[in-house]
Structures are given as structure tokens and as C-alpha cells.
Amino acid sequence: MAICSFSKLGVKTRSYDDKNLLPLPSDDVFHTEGFRQIAYSLEEAIAFHRETHHPTMFNKSNALIEAAVELDMRTKKKTKFVSEFSGILMFPHKFEIKTSRRIVAICKTLEQSDIAIQSGASIAGGSDIIRQIKSKKLTSTDFDHIVCHSDMLVELAEVRGVLRDHFPNKVKGNYGTDMQTLVTKFMESLDYKCTRDDIEPEFGCVESPFGSLDMDTDKLRENLIYFLNKVESHQPKDAPSCFIRRVLLKSKPSLEQFRIRHWDLLDGYEDPTQIDESEMKSGQKG
Amino acid sequence: MLSRRLLCPLIKCCPPLQRQQQRNTWILKRVNKPYLKKSWVNPLVVGPALKRINADYELHPDKDFLYEVVKNTENDKMDDIEVLLLKHVKGLGVAGDIVKVRPGIFRHHLYLKREATYASPENLELYKDLIENKQRDINAPSSALSPITVEKLSKTYAVLELSSTQPWTVEPWHVRIALRNEGFIVPEYAIKMPETPITGPDVEGKQDKDFAVFITINKNEQVAVRCTIHHIGAFVHDNWKTRAVRVPILAEQKELLESMFSYPVEEEEEE
């Protein structure tokens, strides 16, 4: 399978496996090479990043904190893997982030289009925009999201084949009656995308910022739990193992990354270190 | 000279000079069921008729000596063996410890150097004093891992990345972060800073210069570690470790830093 091709290409696996690594020693000072990666609690990992952004070091107290979630993409079939997915995030606690968004608003009356442009949409209009999409003057490279008033859905259905993924649906929630809430929702949200390569199809990774370092720790915790739950919802039901393998916290410009105990934040996950210990004890008795 | 024609059959008929035993087991299975008296008893035939039907039958020389291999233990991985250490072994333990190692490591390295023996009941009684006096030894390393940690710590350059605009004084947690970047887990109570405080920012005076801190492992062994200050945004050469002779920040630490490990200076190639 995939593992055979690694040796030919000379590529290392990206997935973390602690089968051949030693359990942590009881010493207070040690070098971490050859041992299992330490799993910190969320509070500890955030405190470490706050240290490196202290005024005496990087001097960036409002730096963004990112989470890299590593996924197990296997399904029930051995030759089939979870395909790449994407979505938007609406965090419960908002933070400042510089993103450029191009939103197309489709609505019936002039008043609605004025409201849409005031709240941040780059283009707003009615049947003239649908005509542009039909003639391929306006393509998916020119915008990020499409927002539609529910009166115009029937007319927009003509260009369903051209729009494909951008066509409004219930899961995305990009159609409704109130244009102002619709546009602001997509202006304030963040995109996330799962990346995967063909060499190692069982490994996927999702990266997204979930807050800034000057926020409260409780708010950061709620944001991260929301993000992890959103990612976990993409797992098929009959998967052989847990979806999330490892969660790393990063914060630029520091290059450090800390593994956190994600099994404390989510339900349905077991502590992998405790399983090992119980196995060791039962093995010794036997 | 003996001719080749005479020698060749002589060598062939001699047994090989070098013979080695192999500790392995072959588990075999018969291909054909042989016609043996016991296995072919017919319960319906009794009395004198038995003699006539179940006559003794000799095993067929080709057909009945065919076997299939079920299992061969030659390539199986052997279990770890328990050994008694007689000396302090780096990464394994202190003299008097009973540890589990791979049999090959024990036979080819530890046993030949007299660093360990088999942990048999006879040996345990022979080295009773060694096991009892294990904890009283002051010079013994505090744990199996500590000699390796001492070696690695003494060869590292902990780089402190500090601000070039905001004022600072070097504190233990700065050193802790610098060592964490190199892969060392060090608590703050184990770090002993130099007595005179180091302040900054001072890009001209302190950039790429060294000072030493002391680190105690398990509250027992003390190591001096070389720390270097790099200001954020200031220029640093790629080969800063081997470019020139290291310069100390504090005059009192000059002798200490010269006695410590440092990479030899390499002369740059001029184009």
C-alpha cells in the first residue's frame, strides 16, 4: 500500500506514531529525543506561547494562535479514503483577523442591494448578475462566496451547472430573507480546508487560527472545542478508528508547536497513554 | 604434490571443520498417514481374524517419510533477558541494578566488558554486597538517563532570542525557553543564573556573545551550559558557531567558558 511507496520515494511519513518511541522518563531534566511527544493541557500550551510573545522576547501580545489538526482519513474500505472537505467557521468569541472577502449578493429590489453593499458585499444585483454568470464573465475565481435572497433562488437555478459548489444550499446557509445578517455572517467567518496528498492518502490536515493570545483562556477553549467539533462532523459513520489523531498549537513568529490533550476537550476519545499503561500491567501479570 | 583428482574426494568425505550448534526447533507434520497397526484398527474385527488382517507392515522408504514444515523457530525474536549490572552503564542503570536487555547486546558487549552478568540466584548471592550498597554510593549517577543528559547538555548552545527594542534582564525562564527549543525539558528550580545580572538591549556589546548557567539534574549532578544572546532582527551568520573564537559577556566567566566544550574555529574559504 502507501507505506511501500515511501521507501522508493525517500519520503518520511507525516503521521505521528509512538509505537517505537519510549515512554517519558521520571527524571526532571532530560532530552526529548527518542521519547514520546509530551501532551500538554490547553492552558499550559497557551501559557508557553504567551511566554515567547512577552515584551522582552517577540513583543507581540496580540499574536494569532493556530491549531493544526491531524486526521485519520481511512474508511471501512481499505482502498477508499475520506475526500478533501472545506467549510466556514463562525466562532462564538470573535477576534481580529485580516482577511479579504469577495462576496456576491443576489437580490430582487434596489433597497436590498444597497443594504448588502453597505454591510460589505463587493457586488450586488439581480438578474443582470445571473446573466453575467451564464455568459461566464463572472467566474468562481472572481469571488469567494455567493449570497442569495430566497426570492431569487428559482432564477438562480438556471446556472446551477456553472456554479456547482457555490450554489446556495441549506448546510452552508447562504440564502435567506435578511440580507444584512447573511452578508455579515460570511464577512466575519473563516474558511478552513482539509489538505491531503496522493502519496499518503490516509493522512489529512486542517489548519486554522482560533483566537489571539490576549483573549481569555476560557474563550479560547470554547473556540477550539467549536473548531474541533466542526472538523469531526466530516467523519463518515462507519470509520474504523477515531478521526482526530493529534492537535498541535502554533503561533507565529515563534516556531514552537505543542501537542495538546485533545481527548480532554472532546467526548468519545480515550487517553492513549492510559491504554498503554493498562496493557503493560496486564502483560506483566500474564 | 598430491594431484587434484586424489584430493577432491578426500575433502568431500571429511566432516566440515567448523561446526556450530543452533538452538532452534522444527515442528513437522506427516504428508501421508502411514499404515501402522494402531491407527488402522477395525473395531468390528475381533478374535483370531485380527492377526490375519492387521499384519505388521513396514514403512515405505519414500512415501511415509515425507514431512511438511509447520513452524521453524530459527528466525523468531528472542525475549529480553534479565541481567545484573556490575558497573555504571550509560543509559541502562547503576551498578547493582537488575535490568532487561536484548540478549545480543548482553552477549557481545556487556558480558565481554565485565559490565554485567546473568541474574541467576547464584550470582545474586555472590554480589549481595553490591546490591545492598547501591543506594549509599555518592558518586553513582542519579538515574540511568542522567549521564547521557549531562553529555548532551554540555555540548549545546542555548540561543536566547531577546528583543532589540524593549529593555530586559535575563531571567531563568528565558533560559528555559532557549533549552526547550533545543529539545530539553528543564524546570526553573534547576537553573542557577550567574550572580551579576545581564541587561539589554545591547546589540553592539552583547550580540552573539556567551555566558554560562548551571543546571542540576535530579538535584544531584551539576552541568555548566553555554548560552548565547541573539537580538531579534539583528544579523547573524549561518556558521556563527564555528566562525570565530567565542567571546564571554561577563569577565568573571572567562576561564569557565574556555574550559567548556566549543566547536573548533573553521577558516573561511576565500573566493
Task: Give the SSE layout.
The complex is a heterodimer of chains A (286) and B (271).
Chain A: H1 2-9, E1 30-31, E2 39-40, H2 42-52, E3 64-72, E4 86-89, E5 103-106, H3 110-118, E6 123-125, H4 127-134, E7 145-149, H5 153-156, H6 160-163, E8 175-176, H7 179-188, E9 190-196, E10 203-212, H8 217-232, E11 244-250, E12 257-260, H9 272-285
Parallel strand pairs in A: 2-12, 5-6, 5-7, 7-8
Antiparallel strand pairs in A: 3-10, 3-11, 4-9, 9-10, 11-12
Chain B: H1 4-13, E1 26-30, H2 49-53, E2 67-72, E3 81-85, E4 98-101, H3 103-110, E5 116-118, H4 121-126, H5 128-132, H6 146-154, E6 157-162, E7 168-169, H7 172-182, E8 184-185, E9 191-192, E10 199-200, H8 203-206, E11 210-217, E12 221-231, H9 254-259
Parallel strand pairs in B: 6-12
Antiparallel strand pairs in B: 1-2, 3-4, 3-5, 7-10, 9-11, 11-12
Family (chain A): Belongs to the universal ribosomal protein uL1 family.
Protein name (chain A): 39S ribosomal protein L1-like protein
Keywords (chain A): Ribonucleoprotein, Ribosomal protein
Largest interface: pair, residues per side: A-B, 20 and 32 residues
Please write the CATH class name of the largest domain in chain B. Alpha Beta
* Total beta strands of chain A: 12
CATH class of the largest domain in chain A: Alpha Beta
CATH topology of the largest domain in chain B: Ribosomal Protein L9, domain 2
What's the SSE pattern of chain B?
HEHEEEHEHHHEEHEEEHEEH
CA-based gyration radius of chain B:
36 Å
Secondary-structure arrangement, i.e. CATH architecture of the largest domain in chain A? 2-Layer Sandwich
Spans of chain B of at least 5 consecutive residues whose pLDDT stays below 50 are none
Number of domains of chain B: 3
Main sheet overview of chain A: 7 strands, mixed
Through-space gap between termini of chain B: 68 Å
Overall pLDDT metric of chain B: 86
Structural class of chain B: alpha+beta
CATH superfamily of the largest domain in chain B: Ribosomal protein L9, C-terminal domain
Query: Taking strands numbered 1, 2, ... along the chain, how are they ordered across the largest sheet of chain B?
Result: 6-12-11-9
**Backbone CA Rg of chain A:** 23 Å
